Each structure stands twice: as structure tokens, then as C-alpha cells.
Amino acid sequence: MSRQILDQGLKDQAIDLDLNYQDFEKFYKLLKAGNEKTDLTNIIEEEEAYIKHFLDSLCLFKVAEFYEEKKLVDIGTGAGFPGLPLKLANPNLDITLLDSLKKRLNFLDSVIDQMDLKNIHTIHMRGEDAGKDPKMRESFDLATSRAVSRLNILVELALPLVKPGGLFVAMKGKNVDQEVQEAEKAIKTLGGSLKEVIKFNLTKDDNQRALVVIEKVKASPKKYPRAYGQIKKRPL
């Protein structure tokens, strides 16, 4: 059943991937077992998890750069989405899973070890702190984030991590037009330019999704990102 879900889902999305389905089956089993010990996700039933976690994450391959050999940061990765499915689908991605909650990262470290995955690691850090870290600032080709915050807040966390010429792709839902409009000033201020908004339904039952693709066209001003309290209270 799980293979059919991904096969049909990717076909419906016009995404061409050569997946190792056993890897996804193993990750699902680890996710289910880990969720019994740690609160990782409310979506754990197999069919729903394959659609709303795995297929949803793989829809990032609508953006051609995700097929390439790139350095990627997944901001607020949670239980590993979208970062882990991206790694399983394209082993050439060098992935950093960034999150402020250590227990989730402990789970992901265990998954990485048990699945013997290479060039993927976790960092326990808040997004605004990562953007100030000289080792991380403007060091990634790609950044992505799912269900973290509104776009006008998210771009201040993400764009400082992306090198000029790279992309930040935010995974959003049906209110994407409003969020993009709110974030116009923040995108420009942080050195970004809106490249495209890719809208699609995840399933035939109309799970509306959108990928907001933002290109980093110039370096972010050094004063950003601000402290999270300031970002949230006074978005750009």
C-alpha cells in the first residue's frame, strides 16, 4: 500500500524519482516507534503519514534544484520533514536538520545512525541564532521549512542562511497569496526576490499546497536576523 501511495502520488504531481521504497518503510517504522516514546507528530497512521509527511515533502522536487548536488538546511525540521524524505530521494543532497527541540533531534540522530545515512546531520539551534553563526550564515544553496511560521517571519530566519544565488523554498497552504503579500518587504530587505509560487493539490481530495520559491539575489544586511521576539513583534 505504501509503495502505491508514493507511486501514484508522484505520478499525479508529475515528479520523476527513482525511490528505494524500503528506506521509506524503515523510516516510517522508526517514526512510529519513536512517536511512542517522544511526541514527534500527530500524523502517524500509515496512509496519512505517507501522504502528509512523505509525499508532501517529496513535492519539493517540483523545484529542479532539489535534484542536484546541493547543500541544504531544513529549518524547524521537527520529526525530519521535509529533510529526511529529501535525503532518501536524493542522496547527493548534503542536509542540515535544524531544530530548537533536542528530543526531536535525538530521534533524528538515531534514525540517521540506524539507516546509515551519510552527509546529513542535526544542529540544536534556533533559526535566528543560526543566521548569526559565521559558520552557517550564507553557507547553504537551498533552505526549506514546513509549518514553522508565517512567511514574513520565516524569511528573516531563512534568507540569512542562504548564499547569494541560492533558493529558499517555503512550504505553505491555501492562504499563500496573503502570506506572500505580507512578506514582500521582508523578502526584499533580506536580499531576496520572489521567483515563483507553485500551487497544487496534494491529493484529489483538495489538500491545497504551495511552494514559495525565493531567490537570494544579494547578501542579507548584517543586522538580520534580529532576536525572535523582535521578529515576531515587528515583522519587516
Could you walk me through the main structural features you see in this protein, from its secondary elements to its overall organization?
This protein is an alpha/beta fold and 236 residues long. Helix content is 39%, strand content 22%. It contains nine helices and seven strands. The chain has helices at residues 2-12, 21-37, 46-58, 83-89, 102-114, 127-130, 151-158, 176-189, 228-233, and strands at residues 71-75, 94-99, 120-124, 140-146, 162-172, 192-201, 208-216. The protein has a seven-stranded mixed sheet, sandwiched between helices. A hairpin with a 6-residue loop joins strand 6 (192-201) and strand 7. The radius of gyration is 17 Å and the shape is globular. The mean pLDDT is 95.
Descriptive tags:
single chain, 236 residues, alpha/beta, seven-stranded mixed sheet, 22% strand
Concise account of the structure shown:
The protein is of the alpha/beta class and 236 residues long. Helices cover 39% and strands 22% of the residues.
Order of helices and strands: HHHEHEHEHEHEHEEH
Describe the strand arrangement of the main beta sheet, using strand numbers.
3-2-1-4-5-7-6
Which of globular, elongated, flat, extended, rod-shaped describes the shape? globular
Query: Structural class given helices, strands, pairing?
Result: alpha/beta
* Main beta sheet strand tally, sense and closure: 7 strands, mixed
Tally the beta strands.
7
Strand content: 15-25%
* Overall average residue pLDDT: 95
Quaternary organization: single chain
